[in-house]
Amino acid sequence: MYAIVEIAGQQFKVVKDQKVFVHRLATEEGKAVSFDNVLLIGDGNNITVGAPAIDGAQVGAKVLKHLKGDKVIVFKKKRRKGYRKKNGHRQALSEIIIESIVASGAKKVTKAEKEVAKKASPVKVEKAAPVKAAPKAEAKPASAKAMSDKPVAKKEKATQDLNSLTVAKLREMAKAKEISGYSSMKKADLIAALS
Q: Within 10 A of 20 (CB to CB), how many other CB atoms are there?
């Protein structure tokens, strides 16, 4: 049984217990990894082709080690111009061994489940929460809130209207209002001066 699977942007024909060098995977050495973007599975005379991928098919593998590939020399030259550039490059690779090929019944991992598994996502939530809480804390007095909302809303609407205008139109408006130094102002400065 063999499968054609897409791993890290490249397509590989793999069989069970085969070692494959792929672009560096963000998985630690010794950990298991699964690839659900299986494009074709062949089992003797039985060939299943996906459109583009086969639903429920999965290839399981284990990361053996992370390494660098052989050095590739990148040499650029333009004749008769004295231009010569020599660069070296070693591709970051991961060596994996294919442990299993499942034709159907595998559970597909969604993007939401991958995000839940990441540890970085709670940090983002903590950063976003104080920004939303600050305006609510300032707007506690009921009488001040009723009086201040109307001018703030009008001011925000005016700045939104000014944001949609071009810099040339804003400069014309500044010239009409006789604002000094409008020709050297940036868009944000013009909006602040006009509102």
A: 18
Element holding 130 (H helix, E strand):
helix 121-138
Sign of CA dihedral 41, 42, 48, 52: positive
Tens of pLDDT, residues 95-114: 999 999 998 876 666 555 55
Written as six digits, the tokens of 171 are 């400069």
SS3 percent helix, strand, coil of the chain, rounded to 5, is: 35, 35, 30
Q: Establish if 20 belongs to a structural domain.
A: yes
Per-residue pLDDT for 142 more than 80?
no
Report the candidate in 54, 56, 67 with the shortest Cα–Cα distance to residue 20.
67
pTM exceeds cut of 0.90 = no
pLDDT of residue 4: 96
Alpha-carbon distance of 11 to 106, in angstroms, equals 20
Which residues form the domain of 25? 2-74+86-109
Per DSSP, 108 falls in state P
37 and 105 together in one domain = yes
Tokens 């672009």 belong to which residue?
23
User: What's the number of domains the chain is made of?
Assistant: 2
* H/E element, 23: strand 19-23
